[in-house]
């Protein structure tokens, strides 16, 4: 008991103070970092939409709290080891030699961290965005300096090292675009069809349930796009708020199908017309 009491008076209180300071610093960072980051992002992105600012804040808060937690944990372990009499010089020297040995193997790790730094710096994407990397597309669940985690529509969780990301497509940054190709039969009056398509879009913008998702009050692109094998394809494009384009396209397809049915407009399906050439003269 006397030994324990002596240790507490001589060394233990230093350990408790060190751990307390590091833990308190971490708690303060968790408490005040979101406020500071939110204010900074609001000033720097004042012309951006609120949803974009919130995604940026969420991403930066997670980065700073995680990085500071790891750094303070390492610092606390180093200081405590010195206070309890553990000589860290020899292990550090040994680790330095070992580090040289594995340095070549750490090249990929360093590459991932550098790539992650530029992802944050350039605001390429944030948590909550939907991105495409190569042939993988999904929502961004988590970003760190080393890797990005995506969740696709099937629920699969993809872990992608940042150094492997060469080209990334952000499908939901600032605004999105509903892009529809709708086919009608060759016999239909295209001016009438396009007028109905425009009217259906404009009615959606006035709908209380859907208007808040749509930016373009009328399609900014509506044209004949292709003469297909079975019908004529009409392309229609309109802008929506981020990540709402798929909902808007699904609802628009439902509505335009109903309008076409009511107006007697045929939606083509694949079919083949056989032609045998000129008819042969009747044989006698």
Structure description:
A hairpin with a 2-residue loop joins β1 (130-133) and β2. This protein has 6 helices and 8 strands, in the order ααααββββββαββα. α1 (2-44) packs antiparallel against α2 (50-83) and α5 packs across α6. It folds into 3 domains: 2-86; 125-170, SH3 type barrels, CATH 2.30.30; 176-263, Alpha-Beta Plaits, CATH 3.30.70. The strands form 2 sheets. A 5-stranded antiparallel β-sheet has the order 4-3-2-1-5. The protein has a 3-stranded antiparallel β-sheet with strand order 6-8-7. The longest helix has 43 residues, at 2-44. It has helices at 2-44, 50-83, 89-102, 107-121, 190-206, 245-263, and strands at residues 130-133, 136-143, 147-151, 157-161, 168-170, 176-184, 221-227, 232-240. The chain is of the alpha+beta class and 284 residues long.
Helix count, per DSSP? Answer: 6
For the largest beta-sheet, the strand count, sense and barrel status come to: 5 strands, antiparallel
Give me the CATH architecture of the largest domain, please: 2-Layer Sandwich
- The tally of strands reads 8
Pattern of helices and strands: HHHHEEEEEEHEEH
- The average pLDDT score comes to 84
Using the CA coordinates, give the radius of gyration.
Answer: 31 Å
Please estimate the helix content: 40-55%
**Domain tally:** 3
Please report the first level of CATH classification, the CATH class of the largest domain: Alpha Beta
Distance between the termini: 127 Å
SSE arrangement:
Blueprint: H1 2-44, H2 50-83, H3 89-102, H4 107-121, E1 130-133, E2 136-143, E3 147-151, E4 157-161, E5 168-170, E6 176-184, H5 190-206, E7 221-227, E8 232-240, H6 245-263
Helix pairs in contact: 1-2, 5-6
